[in-house]
């Protein structure tokens, strides 16, 4: 028992730093709960291990910047989506809404310190979280964990490490680490019911969350949390009316661009059909906003003490969610709704099925499952150990409705199953920690460990109709014409009354239409299959207080990948106490991230806007026949060099941290700008790309207008600063945080990116972002006011970036009042974006009914009001 107490004292001094900078101890604090007499001490240790030291916002005594949010902090945010909670609390964490982005509409891309999700390592109880199955199809092509699958009701706290930590945690921890700590209560629980909607009268949301804890005898616990949510779609749109096509009956240009000569077309039937062009129930043919979404999520956390020095633990989750949204509207004459010649020589148009044109509706059903179990304890020599194994799976099943496979003509269904995406991970780890007395001010912490991980990514074949190459994907499929003259087949249908005219190059007989379910062609056998790899790694970490004022930590990690070889990364961090109340801290580290199996294997054909107009665009793997034909090179790992330097301190009621950082990222992973494809022999390189697609055997190559692929395209340098301050006076807590972040391309990227993509990479995110909150308690009533500030930013409007739009800085305010009815029940009401503030309207970069830039990281949904009932038992 004396040895254990000595160990506990050592942990009190060293684990706050380890928890914030390495997480290598990988043990839940309750391992030291050997008997009921130590309960108070254990609770104290738990608080210290999470790095709070009584400071509500940031750990001032760690070697690198880390934010620690308690359960109260999380509850104080009106969102229930954990992604939105982080966006609200962490200025350097940004989140975008992408209404028309395939699976990106349901799994939203996020970034920390200007880096995409896959540059931030996500942990749960200090264990790696598996990735989602979605690979974002543009830009950084990020494939990271779906944080929305973690219900906020399951969380006891969150640590956000804002520093590179690949040497401690492994690949992905380039921008930082987010560690979610699960509740470990063995009794009691909570229940919350939340209702709200946007000021616009849409986006109604209903959420029920809860948690309950059970004791497993007198030696263990089982904590179960759940969430049920349902939210309706929003529309911040105007009717589709562009120079090439206008559907606004109140506009003088109504029906501009619509081919009124198509068979089955009449103005009356078209206008009547416009109301049914979109199945979302909106007043516009193409709504822009959040999708319909519903989810059921469960998370459990458990532990059981086998003895005074040994404990079993396990946690896991199951999440089932669904969302649906719209794609781009298809109007008569847009290349999809066109006349074709049937076998009897008659004309056919999809207007038979969709008299007003159509807007495909896309649904994603996401199933997320994980299970982790482990054994931790202490050996007789004082060494602690942690053996764990985890399995994680994320699956997306797609459904596409209200659309057609144009190449199938009248035989096309209007609903498709284009396929599934599945990401699976299996990992085993062994972690050890030994405290050694070497004569320093504190014991030397020697941590080391081994890990092995298998990953797989699978594209599951869609139903045959979703990728079928129908007869009408090629001109004159029935052999009616030859060199401008009618063949015997052609003469036969002409005699039967057909209007066929082989001498007219505009006759429908020469029309070729697209292959596959329009909007999202299904995965064919050629583009289905599984991509797999394995990784083995080893690390060592040393840290100690060399003197009472000087703490230092060093770490090395070696990882070997079956597909990318090996890499050695390292890190050194220090903290020096300038005074009793002020510390100087800094770090230097290298990082490494291997492209995921999903990023290596994903393929996609979707509608995008490379030059402002909707175009069918194909994304192909770099090492596929198509990628190689287009000139793609084999992918390689990204590497980084991170620097940070800062000060932290506490001055009576004020705590303050100021940290500067620099992230140099080499061989950055990115999608090349869309490359034009054309069947016109006079289009130069665009025609060469078409021939390359044909040579590579791409079905429907004649209907693809653009292609791209992922590459290690360029180097970037990111510079930034974080300031976090907390001031407490009487019953009022003031918290302020400010982030400055700027990313610049540090190599010649012109071979991979056009001017627009280069400009947006450097300018599309606000460089300044801040959050200031004030919370005051009046006995049973508490009031929270939060101001979210974002600085100016810019967006390129054309591919050459000759025209840009600057968006003004702004502030959005949140307000919440909570009344404690009794010890168990409280009622809260409030508003997000209290004054209904919107970013500037779009000035030319988007089309098709969008009012605001859809990729804007600044929220453009407007004000939202809500009420919430909380019950704690």
Plain-language structure description:
With 873 residues, the chain is mostly beta strands. 11% of the residues lie in helices and 43% in strands. The chain is built from 12 helices and 40 strands. It has a 22-stranded antiparallel barrel. It is globular, with a radius of gyration of 29 Å. The two termini are 35 Å apart.
Features:
single chain; 873 residues; mainly beta; Maltoporin, Chain A; 22-stranded antiparallel barrel; 5-stranded mixed sheet; 12 helices; globular; disordered N terminus
By secondary-structure content and strand pairing, the structural class works out as mainly beta
User: Percent helix among the residues?
Assistant: 10-25%
Low-confidence stretches: 1-58
CATH architecture designation: Beta Barrel
What distance lies between the first and last C-alpha atoms, to the nearest angstrom? 35 Å
Beta-strand level of the residues, as a percent range? 35-45%
Average pLDDT for all residues: 89
General shape? globular
Major beta sheet, specifics?
22 strands, antiparallel, barrel
